[in-house]
Structures are given as structure tokens and as C-alpha cells.
Design brief:
single chain, mainly alpha, two-stranded parallel ribbon, 9 helices, 2 strands, elongated
């Protein structure tokens, strides 16, 4: 366990500056967008107190809400989140291939460490999950700060309170990033974790068999993608003539995806232990 934690610490330490960069991008885009939207609206209201461009249900005319501001900044919330997804997506490959780069390849030292090689695999997976949920937690912590900024900029007589569920649902990026129920959470993040594990195994196939391994890796990814895409249709989801209820089909799909996930992990362990040599 101590060796595994050291490997996790090493991977997180390597990513720290990129993580800070992504956090800075999110902060600049979101806070800048909120200040810009509020500044434009408030400048018009100061010139004409009766003016209001806000049209929101259950909000008195002429009043501003944090929910409205968040709904007006959709684009500037989506951009940094997509940048973060793209960076972490590329890092899923880089976290492995970086160890093979250079004259003194670091992977040789990793593979010669005492203990099970699966710890290397688990440490890299844990690091990716820390990056993802670290950014999600950062976004959660940033929202109250942004609400405080809204309260500081808008006079009390011009603002109304907002509730967090309606704030999150008003912004497409937040609605995707912060699921409001357990099913949505497992669907979004479970699919993401499964994708990471499939890519990990595809990379290990390429590292194990080199040129022909590229084909093996692509086929491995394609088979899993096809299975996940067509599995619900094969089981009859949405078909009124199906012998299974929708909840039962969803449960079967979830169970099969869990089995595929475990097989990817075990296959990756075997490749790392038996096929990749120093």
C-alpha cells in the first residue's frame, strides 16, 4: 500500500502545474464572463432604473438573479470545461507514453520496482480520477465565490435569491458536470471511467506487441464501443414488445458494462505483468 501511495503521489506531482493551469483557465473564463454580463446589465440599469433585459419565470421584472447570470454565461462555462476534458483526455495517453520517452526510459525503473506491477496501473488510474474529481470539486467551490461576486456587484434592492438546483440546471456545462441524481452520476462518470480503462488496456496492447499492437488496440476499443452502443438495442430498450422492463434492461446494461470494466482491468494487469518486459 505504501508503494502504491508513493506512485500516486508521483503521478499527481507530475501533473500539478497543468492542474493549476486548468484551474486558472476555469477561474478566468467564468469570473470574467460574470463580471462582463453584470457590468453591461448594471450600466444600463443605472442609466434607466426601469430598464431590464431579464426575462425569467418567477422573478419580478427589473430584478436580477444569480440563476439568470449563470444562464447568460453558458458559452464561457463550456469552453474551459471542454479544454479540461481535452487536456485530461490527452493526458490519459501521456501518463503512459511519457515513461517510455527519453534516453533513460523511466518505465524500466518502474517495472523493476519490487511488488506487483498492477500497482503502476492502479496508481495511474487513481491519478486520473484525482484530476477529474479535483476539477469537479474546484468547480463546486468556485460557485459560492461567484455568487458572492454577484452579491457584491448587484445592489440588494435589484437582486433576488437563487437556489443551487436551479442555478446548476440553468447552465448546460454545470448540468453535465454536476449530476443531480445517482443514476446520472453513474452514467456520466461511470462511462468516463470505463473509457479510461479501455484506453489504458489499448495502450498496453500497443506497448506489448508494438506495430501489430496498434491494430490490436484499435480493435479492442472498437469492440467495446460497438458493444456499449448496440447493447441497449439488442436487449430491447424502448421496444414495447420486450419481455423485460426498462429498469431491468438498464440494470443488465449496467451489469454487463461492469463486467467489461473488470475484464479490462484484469487484462491490463496481465499485459503489464506478463507481456511488457524490461
Amino acid at each position: 500500500m505504501n508503494r502504491y501511495l508513493k506512485l500516486v503521489h508521483m503521478e499527481v506531482h507530475r501533473f500539478r502545474y497543468l492542474m493549476l493551469f486548468l484551474m486558472g483557465i476555469i477561474l478566468i473564463f467564468q469570473v470574467g464572463a460574470i463580471i462582463s454580463v453584470l457590468s453591461d446589465e448594471l450600466s444600463l440599469k443605472w442609466e434607466n432604473p426601469a430598464y431590464s433585459s431579464v426575462r425569467q419565470p418567477f422573478v419580478p421584472e427589473g430584478m436580477l438573479s444569480f440563476t439568470w447570470v449563470i444562464s447568460q454565461t453558458n458559452f464561457y462555462f463550456i469552453i474551459p470545461i471542454f479544454i479540461s476534458i481535452a487536456v485530461i483526455g490527452l493526458y490519459i495517453f501521456f501518463i503512459w507514453y511519457r515513461d517510455w520517452l527519453g534516453k533513460s526510459t523511466f518505465i524500466y525503473r518502474l517495472l523493476m520496482l519490487p511488488g506487483a506491477r498492477c500497482q503502476i496501473y492502479l496508481a495511474k488510474l487513481t491519478a486520473i480520477l484525482i484530476f477529474v474529481f479535483g476539477l469537479v470539486s474546484y468547480q463546486l467551490l468556485l460557485l459560492p465565490v461567484e455568487k458572492l461576486l454577484f452579491q457584491m456587484m448587484v445592489p440588494a434592492e435589484w437582486r433576488v435569491d437563487s437556489y443551487w438546483p436551479e442555478v446548476i440546471s440553468a447552465n448546460l456545462a454545470l448540468d453535465m458536470l454536476l449530476p443531480r441524481n445517482v443514476e446520472q452520476f453513474f452514467t456520466i462518470y461511470g462511462a468516463g471511467i470505463m473509457a479510461v480503462l479501455i484506453i489504458f488496456t489499448a495502450i498496453l496492447l500497443e506497448r506489448s506487441y508494438r506495430r501489430i499492437g496498434i491494430l490490436y488496440g484499435l480493435l479492442y476499443v472498437a469492440v467495446h464501443v460497438m458493444a456499449v452502443m448496440f447493447l441497449p438495442d439488442l436487449l430491447g430498450i424502448g421496444n414495447p414488445d420486450s419481455f423485460l422492463y426498462t429498469d431491468e434492461i438498464v440494470g443488465l446494461v449496467f451489469g454487463i458494462c461492469l463486467v467489461l470494466l473488470m475484464l479490462s482491468v484484469l487484462f491490463g494487469f496481465r499485459l503489464l505483468a506478463k507481456k511488457i518486459t524490461v
